[in-house]
Amino acid sequence: MKKITLLFLMLLAFTFGNAQETISFEAPAYTLGDVYGQNGWTTTGDGAGGFITNQVISDEQSSDGSYSVKIVPEAAFGGQDAPVVGAFYDYATPVSYVDAVFSADLYLDTFDSSTTSDFIFGFVNLTDGAYITYVRFTYTGDISVLADDGTGTDTIILDDTLTDWTPLTWFNLRTEFTAGGGIEVFIDDVSIYTGLVATPNSDVEQFRFSHDNYGGFAHMDNFRTNDEELSIAEFDLNSFTHFYNNNTKQLKLNSPQNNLNNVEIYDVLGKRVINKNMSGNEDSIELSTLKNGIYLARVNTENGTKTIKFIKS
Asked: What region holds the Secretion system C-terminal sorting domain (predicted)?
């Protein structure tokens, strides 16, 4: 098992509101070769007024059907300071940030810190000239999210043991937005991050599927936009955040719109190891007595229950 290095891409035609769309990159809508110009897709500029041509529709791998999108390094350039090489989609009509759901099937090259890239799956508001949020998979094997950590915008590095992956195997990644700037990220339906986006209340004007041109490749198939329901109903994402502080050995819970009632923490064998009553909108759970490992926390509020996964280390 190795850590994720991943991405995806986007959709094709939006009209008004949060339209539903699934793109499988199949013929006749798509043809093999350069993705630039196909159904509104563009690629990174080549510095001479044109665009790079090796971000392609490929028949090498697919999660369903015959085709997928493949991104690879551009030989004309060296390694970049940021993931700026890849395929982008500019929406004709911005996608509302409210209750938006994006998912895709991903297939990634074998991870190697000496030969692969950082990859970004990112949402941009071009009017503001800023990322709304992104998920970044680094050449060192870390996964990070551009988000608001409660004190301002920051890049939050996630515990990599929660997000191992098998190279050269398809998996699914899903990102959900809610009103007020909430975000939740899933890998194969397991939540790996819940919090607030870096630039809240901003509609998605562009999607970026890119890398920093150091090596490796990634495929994406079956990209869905608003073609799946949010994973939660009453318990809105923007009403709850959690963060494990490795220095203090505390799990911090924050629910500004709902009072916290109780938290139950279970180990990987299903044994309940902590049962704590709470009150108010914020609390911290002391975990120093627990062994290092993976735990599930079931958080009960006045308006719903949410289960989260975290690493105590």
From this structure: 248-311
DSSP state for residue 74 in the 8-state scheme: -
| Mean pLDDT, rounded, for 207-234 | 83
Number of helical (H) and strand (E) elements in the chain, helices listed first: 0, 25
DSSP string over 121-182: EEEEETTTTEEEEEEEE-TTS-EEEEEE-SSSEEEEEEPGGGSEE-TT--EEEEEEEETTTE
* Token couple for 67: 């085709």
Could you read off the pLDDT of 115-144 as tens digits, one per residue? 888 888 888 999 988 899 998 888 877 788
What was the pLDDT predicted at 17? Answer: 45
pLDDT above 90 for 110: no
Q: What is the mean pLDDT of the chain?
A: 82
Distance CA 309, CA 313 (A): 13
CA torsion angle for 16, 17, 20, 24 (degrees, to 10)? 70
Q: Which of 112, 91, 22, 120 is nearest to 63 (CA)?
A: 22
Pick from 306, 196, 311, 313: which is nearest to 262 by CA? 306
User: Residue 69: beta bridge partners?
Assistant: 57, 220
**Continuous H helices in the chain:** none
Q: Which two tokens stand for residue 165?
A: 């992956």
Q: Tell me which residue has tokens 């991903």.
A: 106
